Amino acid sequence: MPTPPALIQAGRAGWPNALTAGLALVLAACTFFPAAPTATPPPADTASPPPASTSVPTGNGTITGRLGYPSEIVPPLTLYFENADTADVLTLSTREGQSAYSKSLPPGTYHVYAWLANFGLGGSYSAAVPCGLTVECADHRLLPVEVPPGGIISGIDLLDWYGPPGSVPLPAGAGVGSGRLEGLLHYPSESISPLTVYARSVTTGETFLTTTVENQQTFVIEDLPPGVYHVFAWFSDGPGGAYTQAVRCGLTADCTDHTLIPVPVPAGQTTTGVDVADWYEQSVVPLP
Known about the structure:
13% helix; Immunoglobulin-like; 5-stranded antiparallel β-sheet; alpha+beta
């Protein structure tokens, strides 16, 4: 049945009221449920980075190095560390066979050297050490060593025992005398003709000698300035013999090294066991 016009009109008249009521309900709901909170970012870290360290090293520095000696064993030594500016000296004692050292020192510039007991022979850290201590290394001046605060300076090797007299500072009150060396004479024969035995300074070339009589089996060379020597001998009509690595080896067929052995002669002491026995390589025997 068709809707009467009066009802249609009444319904149209009620739409605005219904719409208004619906909007009111929506607004009421929005006020009942609060809006979700908004996250606030944390404040930026404005702390300054720690300042870079500006501390300066302080305290003593340290010198280290090797110990050497022209012999099979390094003897007991006294090491000297002399300040190049003030002449103050600090010392360090080492034991027999010791091959390295370490010494704490106030900052400064130092000369480093060593002496045997009784100041018989001196060695040093000199220009000849970094040169290689070959025959061509003739500069035996002590090298200055700079020791910084808190630093470690390595490679200060006490190896130069070949400098001329006076190249190693002698501590106050120390006296230096002469030394001597002695050894046996061997020759591949039933008898030994008279010989001239020589001791020649490795550093200066200065040569000292003694003569023997027929069948003499020992020798002594006295009044030698402290130093390092090569020892050899000649018959009046040849050949020549020497104290070489082959002698120390035992002069067997396997002993093929015939180089001369440097022999240290400390002041006031006798160096023994310098046996002239190698007559098998004439090219290594120095001429008189």
